[in-house]
Design a protein that fits this description.
Oligomer: single chain
Strand order of the largest sheet: 10-9-11-13-14-8-15
Shape: globular
Number of strands: 15
CATH topology of the largest domain: Chloramphenicol Acetyltransferase
Number of helices: 14
CATH superfamily of the largest domain: Nonribosomal peptide synthetase, condensation domain
Radius of gyration: 21 Å
Order of helices and strands: EHEHEEEHEEHHEHHEHEHHHHEHEEEHE
Structural class: alpha+beta
Largest sheet: 7 strands, mixed
């Protein structure tokens, strides 16, 4: 069988170069159903998905100048879950498959290497996989529109394209930015990841965010910034304080009215420097709101895109052999990649499904892995009446989660905490 291959999109180029022995940049989306998952039906659903989502069923290949992705069959992707979420994806595994489709009791999960797509693309994939599974098992169906696609049709050209070059400015913006405070703790030596989920009523969260004049994402970022600032104040002398900044992904599909199953997001670092004084929560919400509004514009995002796209077009870089390119990218990432933020808060928003499918679904969840050099991360998704806030960490200490969720409760937002010591959630 002739296999299709795909160039990595602009955002995906860095990830193969910076894989470590214990770290790979992957994320996880899962859906919990009302009944136990049938593995054979799930395998058939995955098989039916492959022709329509070819860029998701891929493995990582090494060329002379660049890494690239090559299509695989769906058969090797479906497994019973065998460990905690987001176990390490080694280079050996990525050479076989960049996606895992997992099942455990009544849960279906997909874990995706970030060179394949971003969180939005991953959610579209899981929503369509879930719809197909429910169709096969229960015979239900719904109109295919929006994010739900007709699997009998071939993929559209826009599904497969790299949208970054389409919206790159002629001039790139500077990347100069001060380094942020770094959270730290006692590392788990075996690579284990602790996962704590806070389940909150979406209505209560939205009401509290609006009370402080903010969107849900900005409100959560402000509360997280408060918690991180408190930890810094309690652990460091004032002379050692650094800015507290939250890394917030921006979905560029909405901004540029594009649709793609490849990566199409950029991040902003928003926050404050506690050396110049303290802020109330209202002041923080206002500050972050204005920072995001000023930075998340098509004009500025195009300048940020250009800063990433232009080096890729440089004739000297283009002819560099891949080992040299990878060494350069690792050096740049080490110097600048993760030093400008304290933690990510990645919010996919409301995950809706047509009523025909929704009655079989209990919840969706979204988990991003920890970064290479900092130990905590946070991801958010809403379904039905609840919002699920997943906080993952690679250290033993749970101080950040304790302060963050306690503050939400203090503000009047009910939070139900879920934590499984074995990670089988």
């Amino acid at each position: 069988m002739k296999r299709n291959w795909f160039r990595l999109d602009n955002a995906a180029l860095i990830f193969p170069a910076i894989i470590g022995r214990k770290w790979s940049n992957a994320f996880r989306l899962s859906v919990t159903l009302a009944e136990t998952v049938d593995p054979e039906i799930l395998a058939q659903a995955a098989k039916d998905m492959r022709p329509r989502f070819p860029t998701c069923f891929v493995r990582l290949k090494t060329g002379f100048f660049w890494y690239y992705l090559e299509e695989i069959s769906s058969a090797g992707c479906v497994h019973e879950e065998y460990a905690y979420p987001l176990t390490y994806m080694s280079r050996t595994e990525l050479k076989k498959s960049c996606i895992r489709i997992l099942y455990f009791k009544n849960r279906i999960a997909v874990e995706i290497f970030h060179s394949v797509t971003d969180g939005t693309g991953g959610l579209i994939f899981l929503q369509n996989l879930t719809a197909r599974y429910l169709e096969l098992k229960y015979g239900v169906t719904a109109e295919k529109s929006g994010y739900l696609v007709d699997l009998s049709m071939p993929p559209k050209k826009e599904d497969l394209r790299d949208c970054f070059p389409l919206h790159s400015s002629k001039y790139s913006l500077t990347r100069h930015e001060s380094n942020a405070y770094r959270l730290s703790g006692t590392p788990e030596t075996d690579g284990y990841r602790h996962l704590i989920t806070g389940v909150c009523p979406t209505k209560a969260l939205l009401e509290k965010a609006h009370e402080h004049g903010a969107t849900l994402n900005t409100f959560l970022s402000a509360v997280m910034a408060e918690a991180i600032c408190e930890i810094q104040r309690d652990t460091l002398d004032e002379r050692g304080w650094k800015p507290v900044k939250i890394t917030v992904p921006v979905n560029l599909r909405k901004m540029y009215k594009e649709y793609t199953m490849r990566n199409f997001a950029l991040t902003l670092n928003v926050g404050f420097d506690p050396r110049y004084g303290s802020y109330t929560l209202d002041e923080l919400c206002s500050l972050l709101t204005h920072q995001i509004a000023a930075e998340a514009t098509p004009q500025k995002m195009s300048g940020d895109i250009a800063a990433n796209v232009k080096p890729q077009k440089n004739p000297i870089i283009r002819v560099m052999p891949l080992p040299v390119k990878s060494a350069v990218m690792r050096a740049v990432y080490s110097a600048r990649g993760e030093k400008r933020g304290c933690i990510n808060i990645s919010n996919l928003g409301q995950s809706d499904m047509p009523a025909q499918y929704a009655e079989y679904i209990e919840r969706f969840e979204f988990i991003i892995g920890v970064q290479q050099t900092y130990p905590n991360n946070c991801s958010v998704i809403s379904f039905g009446e609840n919002t699920y806030i997943n906080m993952i960490r690679s250290i033993k200490e749970s101080e950040l989660e304790r302060r963050f969720f306690s503050r939400l409760v203090e503000l009047g937002v009910p939070v139900e905490i879920e934590y499984d010591e074995k990670g089988r959630r």
